[in-house]
Structure formats: structure tokens, C-alpha cells
Amino acid sequence: MAADLHTHTWHSDGTTSPAQNVALADEAGLGAVAITDHDTTAGWAEAADACRQHGIGFVPGIELSTQRRGASVHLLGYWVAEEDAALTKECARLRGEREGRLDRILARLADHDVPLRRDRVTQIAGSAPIGRPHVARAMVEAGHVHDVDTAFDRWLADGRPAHVHTPARDVRDGVELIHAAGGVAVVAHPALSRSEHMVELVEELAAVGLDGLEVDHPSQDAEVRRAWGSLVARLSLVRTGGSDYHGGHKAAILGQSTTGMRELRALEERRPLAIASGAAPDHPHGGCGPSPRKDSSW
Ligand code: AMP
Ligand code: ZN
Ligand code: FE
Ligand code: FE
Question: Which of 95, 146, 152 for a ligand 1 pocket mutation test, highest count of atoms within 8 Å of Cβ?
């Protein structure tokens, strides 16, 4: 029994509904699933309902955009209070920055004779925070590239001609923001970050209470996982895993990388206000936590 602690829905740059992610998690035999959309909690209510129906645990999460010296670092925050004022404000700010960034991306593309209609990109994104996968999909539709991956490789990835940074907070502030909202903080896909001193960064964050590291991620091979796994052991962090499922926007299959139920329990025990003490305010979605399946024994 395991949990997929990193999945996206159409509330950010995935292509499936929260209920579909839950159904896929159930089909994969998982004990729990998290929804971790970029800079929004919009998918939680539907996913919590679906988890109740399927009898699997729900872990409410968010993938917060942060940075260190201009290099993007993604933080996964679990069990954060949806109504936390500071986190809500930061997410709203980030969504606004994404709108401005879109204009700059489109201007760069236009400079390279790759015209793209803004209204089509925003139509694809719907009410979700605008992400590069939405731009990539519009580029495929317009016939500029064959697929989303090519759009990134040629234009949108860090260092490519149409890459534009989103002004995000320093990752250390992000960890504090998640903790202050009652959540636990995990550094996502460490090997994907372009931050040059990632090991030192994780050490620094561990010293200020970072809870876990996403060792198991489709982009990280066995050797890479061994290296991050030993760092996790050395720093007494929780080793987590997730597929980073994005529906049709990425090749990953939900449940492809997972977190052990024991690790999930360890992560939950690190919530700033321990539920067991009765001190935590009950949360409409977070309160149900990773409840075990009927047939589980963790
Ligand atoms: P954004 O939030 O706009 O910076 O976009 C980040 C998302 O783009 C990630 O969650 C991935 O889904 C996707 N992404 C980032 N880099 C690549 C890449 N090289 N190829 C395909 N998708 C990517
Ligand atoms: Zn994404
Ligand atoms: Fe990410
Ligand atoms: Fe992600």
C-alpha cells in the first residue's frame, strides 16, 4: 500500500478533474492520494469527496512556486489551512504574476516569429493559474511544434528563448509560509531544480524545519534517488514520492512514483499542530487526513 503525493488537475496545468485523479489512484490500488496543484487549493473539495466515496485517504496539498537566486524551487505543502491569509495572499499574488509572465512569454515568441493568441492560451487555462504547459498546448494547436515536450525543449524551458521567470519568494520564506499555515513542507523533485547548490540548500532548509524531500519522482533515476535518499537519512527528513501526474500534459502515470504509508504517517506526525493533541482546528478537507483503506494495516 502506498500513496501518490504529487498530482495535478485541471485546476492548474493538468488535464483531468480531481475526481478522475482519485479514481485513477483507486484503480492503481493506492491507499491515499494528494492533489498538489500549482499555487491553488481549488481541487481539494472535489477530491476529498471522491476519496470518501472510494474509501481512500486524501492528502490536501499545494505546489508552491519559490526560488533561490533566480532558480525555481517547487515546494510541496501538505495539510496547509485553506483559509490561511498569508498563504492565500501569496497564491493570489503568484497567479497574478503568471498573467504578467504570459504577456512577456508571448512577446518573446512574437519576436521569434512564433505568434500565439493570448485569448486561446487563457481559454485553455480556464480558471487555472496560467502555466507553461497551457502555452505549450496552444503552440501545438497553432502548428508551431509537434508536441508539448518540443515546445519546452525549443522555447519554454529554463534557458530557452521564451523562458521568463516568475518573481517568486525565496524558498526559505516558502517553508515558513507553509509551516505558519499548519502544513508540512517538502522540496519537490530536487534533481529538476536548476539551483546549483541544491544539497546545501536542502541542508539549510532542514535546519529551519523542512519536513521531507521528494526522492521518488519519475524524472529521477535509481542512482539519483540513492544520492537524495542518503541525504534524507542523514538529515532525518521524510522520503516522499509522487508521479507529478499532469494528465495528457506529461507522460507520467498516476501512481508511477509513490510514498510508503509509513513515510506518509511520519509526514503527518510532523504537522506543526499535532492532531492528536486536539490543538489543531478541524479542517474541512485536511481533517480527514490519510485515512487507511479498509484492507490496509498501516
Ligand atoms: P510553470 O508553472 O508555468 O513554470 O510550469 C511548470 C510546469 O511545466 C511543470 O509543472 C511541468 O509540468 C512543466 N514542465 C516544466 N519543464 C518541462 C519540460 N522540460 N518539459 C515538459 N514539461 C515541463
Ligand atoms: Zn505543472
Ligand atoms: Fe514541480
Ligand atoms: Fe508538479
Answer: 152
Taking the C-alpha atoms of residue 75 and residue 91, their distance in angstroms, rounded to an integer, is 13
Measured from the alpha carbon of residue 134, the closest ligand is 1
Q: Tell me how many degrees the CA angle 50-55-59 measures, rounded to the nearest 5.
A: 65
pLDDT in tens, 140-177: 999 999 999 999 999 999 999 999 988 899 999 999 99
Question: What are phi and psi for residue 208, nearest 5 degrees?
Answer: -105, 20
From ligand 1's centre to the CA of 292, what distance in Å?
32
pTM: 0.92
Distance from Cα 74 to the centre of ligand 4, integer Å: 8
**Contact yes or no for 160/153 (Cβ under 8 A):** yes
